[in-house]
Structures are given as structure tokens and as C-alpha cells.
Amino acid sequence: METISFALFLFLGALIIASSVGTVWAKNPVSSALFLILNFFALGGIYLLLEAQFIAVVQVIVYAGAIMVLFLFTIMLLNLDDERALTEKFDLQKGFGVLLGGALLVELLYVLGMKIQLPEKTPAIPPSEIGAAKNIGRELITNFLFPFEIVSVLLLLAIIGAIVLAKKNFPNPPSERQT
User: Fold this and answer.
1) Domain segments of the chain: what residues?
2) How many whole angstroms separate alpha carbon 5 and alpha carbon 7?
3) Per CATH, is 1-77 categorized as 1.20.120.1200?
4) Which stretch of DSSP H or E encloses residue 106?
5) Which of 18, 48, 77, 162 has the highest Cβ tally under 10 A?
């Protein structure tokens, strides 16, 4: 049984590496997104091998399902063949975005550089219960609350960025048009 799981681990690891390379090297953005979906499914398989069933299911449902559908719709809505986007001048919004991105990078580097003290005694959890939803929730709310909140801020910034990018490609409403 152990050799089968090791062979499956090697297969899934090779699949993750190959799909990651395919994601980066694909010239078509839709093909790149499909390689990323394959990567997410293979990562879900790795989680199953580690007996983290909840994380595997969440990986497949949230990332391979919902997030990738959002990516594909974004790719289809944005006109990636538009040459105007490459020749635009530097404006105030881009400067503000670069400034906020730099501040976020400094904050992330600070958080990663902090020495987080782990509690001295951690309760012993049986290996079959490590991936359970209640144990994951308890760890997120107690020991990993600050990183959890940082991730929520990062997702909020990604949503704002997607709205700004999508709004740029739509024409002005009739009330704002010049007559």
C-alpha cells in the first residue's frame, strides 16, 4: 500500500510541475487557465494523500471550480488583443496602484519576518482528525488569526483591482457622454 501511495505522489508531483510549466508557457490565456485547473486538481490529490480530506475538497470546489470560472470570465471579458493597453502613459491611478502594491509587499515581508511564538503545549490531535473542518477553523481563529486577516485584505485588493480593470473597458453611460 505504501508503494502505491508513493507512486501516486510521484505522479501527482510530476503532474503539478508539468501543469505549472504549462500555465506559465502557454501563449493562449484560456489554455493557461486550463493548465492551472489541472494543477489545482493534482494539488487536491496530494491533499488526499496527506489525509486532509476537507482541504482537498475545498481545493477542488473553491479553486478549481469557483475561482477558475471567475478567471475564465475575466479573460473573456478583457480584450487581451487590445494594443492600446500597452501604449498608455503613466497616470495617477497606476502610480497610486504601484504605491499601494509596494506598501502591501513591505507589509507582507514584515509579517513573514516576524518571529511568531508558538504555544508551548499544543493538544495532541490524532492524524485522522488533522484535516477536519473544526480543527482547521480552531487553528485559523486562534493561532493564525493575523495571517488569515492579511489574506482577506489581499483578496479585497484583488477584487478592487478586477473592478478597476473591468470598468476601464466599458463605455461611458449616457449621462456622462459629451453632447
Assistant:
1) 1-77, 88-179
2) 5
3) yes
4) helix 92-113
5) 48
